[in-house]
Amino acid sequence: MDTQRRSGEDGRAPFRSSRFFCVGSKWYFTTREGFDSGPFASRQRAETGLRRFLHVVRLLPEEQRVH
Fold it and tell me: Within a 13 Å sphere around the CA of 4, how many CA atoms are in the beta-carbon half?
């Protein structure tokens, strides 16, 4: 996954936990807003789901994006 620093961050990078977690052999991802998405059959599919989610968020007008 992308470990690049987000724009606007100065100083030391804060600790970031994994966005992915597994419950009962099913994989999920979580957003900064606290939304959990899943289940996915594998971590790889959860990573694909997160990339798709982020792509859709980037398509939203700036004022509609949740920060």
Answer: 4
Give the global pTM: 0.68
Q: What does the block give as tokens for 30? A: 């979580």
Domain boundaries, the chain: 20-62
The CA-atom distances, in angstroms, between 38 and each of 16, 17, 30, 60 are 20, 18, 9, 22
The tens digit of pLDDT for each residue in 8-60 reads 667 776 656 789 999 999 999 999 888 999 999 999 999 999 999 999 989 98
Alpha helices in the chain (DSSP H): 43-59
